[in-house]
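Input (structure):
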């Protein structure tokens, strides 16, 4: 709370009360004086909630005291009572006593109340009245993000970039949004973002490569489809969802677009089933439709139904190693480990130069403790032969040697994984687990905490790190999950 309100508060509150009997304003000045004294005491000693309650009581007696209304609104906002804050800010506005500073706070109160339209209206008015753009534009951008209002996001981002020309996020987000509306204008912002933050280079190159490739087809709808798939691959699900919606509006019979729309809906917490079903109605042999329907049933725990759709996808595309891996994963969940293994092996046969499928085979062997030396160890060696510095393969090798009770070799590979990528959360998790096995609790706590920090909040890595922290350290943050 800004303590500018506390400096001369006693004088501001009490002097007018001393004048009340002389002016004949109130029949009960003694009562008001007592309330005023309690309010002053509260401001110096109580919580924002208690202060706001006393000020609300006081302003009921003195409705013409706009300075009290201002204090009441501000303390109500700090007390997480935005509805009450809005009431008093509105009184100030009706009396033309609402400053630009408090107008911004009134927008904050509306935002806290989940009334984004009101908040945006207030902040837009503040901006038009000369309010500080450096404070208002970020608020407007976040609100337009929440509403998926892409045209206004673009407008505000352009203004933000004028204010903050070195802000990576603003350049990157503007580039992503322009990719689905004006693709030819997007690349400049994306390249600046990658220059400001080299970790974005791979993502930007992927967008540029896929966009340029799509132009060779000469079909704007196809280009939009490729952009949507690219956004999905980068986990930009909201933007992907908007792109697939645009594709469907332009071409309602595009089966694959319906399938991808259904997947983006699931990623955003919606059901998605109807969209994927629409895809299969348009094209029963759609690989995307069958694959995403299989994923849908996997998420419901219906692996039997998932396998039916994976089998249909495999009939259309028998040489696709991704489908083989998913068939193996699904059969493993159904308990048919031996047949599951055959699908993982088939994936490595179909794409022997891609370490991804050797890693999938190794992971399957580790998870199900299925002949680790024969499959996990040999598969990971092959993956490392293809890419010796891949942190995923190095981490897998560390897990394997933990299973084989060779802790020295396990630690060596896990440390190599973190040398290759210090932010690879699974390697921190497994190194933390190894330290627990070795009785090195301080090191274990350090690595597990890093793993939890780096991992996505709902990921298996974060969940495992939380479980270990809670079990071995009574970690309060882990207990909240």
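Output (sequence):
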């Amino acid at each position: 709370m800004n303590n500018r309100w506390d400096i001369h508060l006693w004088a501001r509150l009490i002097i007018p009360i001393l004048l009340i009997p002389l002016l004949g304003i109130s029949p009960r000045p003694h009562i008001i004086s007592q309330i005023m004294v309690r309010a002053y005491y509260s401001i110096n000693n109580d919580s924002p909630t208690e202060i706001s309650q006393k000020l609300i009581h006081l302003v009921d007696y003195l409705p013409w005291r706009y300075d009290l209304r201002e204090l009441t609104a501000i303390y109500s906002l700090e007390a997480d009572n935005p509805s009450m804050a809005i009431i008093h800010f509105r009184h100030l506005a009706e009396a033309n006593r609402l400053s630009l500073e408090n107008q911004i706070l009134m927008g904050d109160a509306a935002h806290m109340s989940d009334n984004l339209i009101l908040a945006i209206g207030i902040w837009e008015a503040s901006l038009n009245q000369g309010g500080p753009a450096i404070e208002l534009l970020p608020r407007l951008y976040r609100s337009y993000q929440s509403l998926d209002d892409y045209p206004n996001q673009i407008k505000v981002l352009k203004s933000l970039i004028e204010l903050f020309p070195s802000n990576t996020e603003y350049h990157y987000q503007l580039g992503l949004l322009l990719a689905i509306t004006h693709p030819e204008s997007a690349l400049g912002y994306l390249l600046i973002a990658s220059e400001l933050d080299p970790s974005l280079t791979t993502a930007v190159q992927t967008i540029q490569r896929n966009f340029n490739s799509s132009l060779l087809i000469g079909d704007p709808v196809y280009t939009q489809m490729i952009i949507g798939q690219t956004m999905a691959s980068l986990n930009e699900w909201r933007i992907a969802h908007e792109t697939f919606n645009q594709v469907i509006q332009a071409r309602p019979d595009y089966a694959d677009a319906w399938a991808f729309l259904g997947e983006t809906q699931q990623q955003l917490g919606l059901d998605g089933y109807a969209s994927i079903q629409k895809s299969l109605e348009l094209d029963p042999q759609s690989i995307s439709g069958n694959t995403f329907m299989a994923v849908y049933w996997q998420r419901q725990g219906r692996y039997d139904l998932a396998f039916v759709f994976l089998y249909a996808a495999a009939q259309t595309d028998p040489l696709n190693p991704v489908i083989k891996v998913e068939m193996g994963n699904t059969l493993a969940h159904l308990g048919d480990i031996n047949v599951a293994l055959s699908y993982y092996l088939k994936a490595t046969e179909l794409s022997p130069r891609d370490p991804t499928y050797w890693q999938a085979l190794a992971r399957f062997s580790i998870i199900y403790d299925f002949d680790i030396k024969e499959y996990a160890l040999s598969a990971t060696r092959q993956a490392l032969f293809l890419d010796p510095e891949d942190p995923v393969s190095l981490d897998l090798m560390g897990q394997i040697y933990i299973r084989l009770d060779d802790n020295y070799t396990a630690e060596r590979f896990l440390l190599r994984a973190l040398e290759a990528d210090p932010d690879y959360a699974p390697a921190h998790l497994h190194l933390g687990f190894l330290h627990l096995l070795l009785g090195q609790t301080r090191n274990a706590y350090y690595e597990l905490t890093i793993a939890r920090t780096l991992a996505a909040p709902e990921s298996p890595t974060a969940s495992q790190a939380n479980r270990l922290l809670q079990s071995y350290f009574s970690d309060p943050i882990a207990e909240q999950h």
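Notes: Residues 381 and 397 are 8 Å apart (CA to CA). Residues 1-37 have pLDDT under 50 and may be disordered.
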